[in-house]
């Protein structure tokens, strides 16, 4: 992502509604709002000239609001630089900054229906931006279709028209931009899928709104070390292995031990001092043939588990990868929950509670120490009502589930959302596409479990774990498998 000045916090996410309040606060503080519009339009023109120096005609699509005003400024500046700039769209509402921009850069404003693609066209989409949360009109939908059919590049101002800045979902017909130029702060729609793809390359630009005004109660961020660096595990020369955390990973039966091994390996490579696989006795020999630094502890039933859990040196638990027995998964989870120690539930650990969601909500009271790591299908099984509500963004759904289960939700996907019961949420936008491979989720569960075992709070451990997971995938490279991924983890 490009940006103009380091003063911008490129990790903060603000809703379109909050961005409107920030704009209003800037105007009320005495800042010249038209001056802000001029700077915004100048950034748009600069992006076009920088990335499309061969442009033959700049097609400026202007809406009736301030987004359209940015377009008028950009069109006027492009024309002054020698580019043929033709404006199409709607006359601005009278009396505002957009009308002032229209007057400052006079010229024809042609109907949208008149635009027909030419070779060398580049569109500046300044129709609506982030505030639109309804389908675009039929005439605009037809224009979008013409642009897509012709392959005309699009530079979106704030957000591609037709894309919700709140949810990242198209509301109907929607531009797919090559570049998106936004100002002051990112919106959720810039990072949530498919919005992130539809925005193309992001340019977050400083137009002069003071940092003190770019504040929000939305409690949303792009996942970034600033969210968890202060909580990273501490190390010192006098530490011993138990001081660095003892992670327990539960294994399934003889035929399904691979997922637990992946989680355990990831946990060890993430910095836990010890990792033990708790396995059915029948799987002991199979596991022993694969393990060296990772220990084993056979657990036959709840009674044996209860006895072992009296060992206070067991720091955190991962249950679910390849576990298989859903009834035993529920009973083991209840036993572990009673210890008051942190737990990661993944895979079969999640499926086990699909029909017992009330039980899961009761098991982990108090400070959040449960981390749930569902992919889309598992989330739907746990929270079908949230998954089926089209008015909710992925952030909304993750927050709702986090509150329901008093758990940190790691709602996986290309736009993994991490949400805490207190409302904090982070969107991860840096993971490579090749993380979508079998066993990748088992590795993630092990990383998060390891960080919990080392004393990190649940939300920070989840944010850090998701980041370490993506970084390991980048190091492993295209064509990696989950074993490669686990081997490329570096401790926080």
From TrEMBL:
Keywords: ATP-binding, Isomerase, Kinase, Lyase, Metal-binding, Multifunctional enzyme, NAD, NADP, Nucleotide-binding, Potassium, Transferase. GO terms for biological process: metabolite repair; nicotinamide nucleotide metabolic process. SUPFAM superfamilies: Ribokinase-like (SSF53613), YjeF N-terminal domain-like (SSF64153). CDD domains: YXKO-related. One of its GO terms (molecular function) is NAD(P)HX epimerase activity. Residues 224-492 form the YjeF C-terminal domain. It comes from the Bacteria. Its cofactor is K(+); Mg(2+). The keyword Metal-binding applies. It catalyses: (6S)-NADHX + ADP = AMP + phosphate + NADH + H(+); (6S)-NADPHX + ADP = AMP + phosphate + NADPH + H(+); (6R)-NADPHX = (6S)-NADPHX; (6R)-NADHX = (6S)-NADHX. Pfam families: Carb_kinase (PF01256), YjeF_N (PF03853). The keyword NAD applies. Binds 1 potassium ion per subunit. InterPro entries: Carbohydrate_kinase_pred_CS, CARKD, Nnr, Ribokinase-like, YjeF_N_dom, YjeF_N_dom_sf. K(+) binds at residues 67, 125, 161. Residues 19-215 form the YjeF N-terminal domain. Catalyzes the dehydration of the S-form of NAD(P)HX at the expense of ADP, which is converted to AMP. Together with NAD(P)HX epimerase, which catalyzes the epimerization of the S- and R-forms, the enzyme allows the repair of both epimers of NAD(P)HX, a damaged form of NAD(P)H that is a result of enzymatic or heat-dependent hydration. Bifunctional enzyme that catalyzes the epimerization of the S- and R-forms of NAD(P)HX and the dehydration of the S-form of NAD(P)HX at the expense of ADP, which is converted to AMP. This allows the repair of both epimers of NAD(P)HX, a damaged form of NAD(P)H that is a result of enzymatic or heat-dependent hydration. Homotetramer. In the N-terminal section; belongs to the NnrE/AIBP family. Belongs to the NnrE/AIBP family. This is Bifunctional NAD(P)H-hydrate repair enzyme. It comes from Hoeflea halophila. The lineage of its organism: Bacteria, Pseudomonadati, Pseudomonadota, Alphaproteobacteria, Hyphomicrobiales.
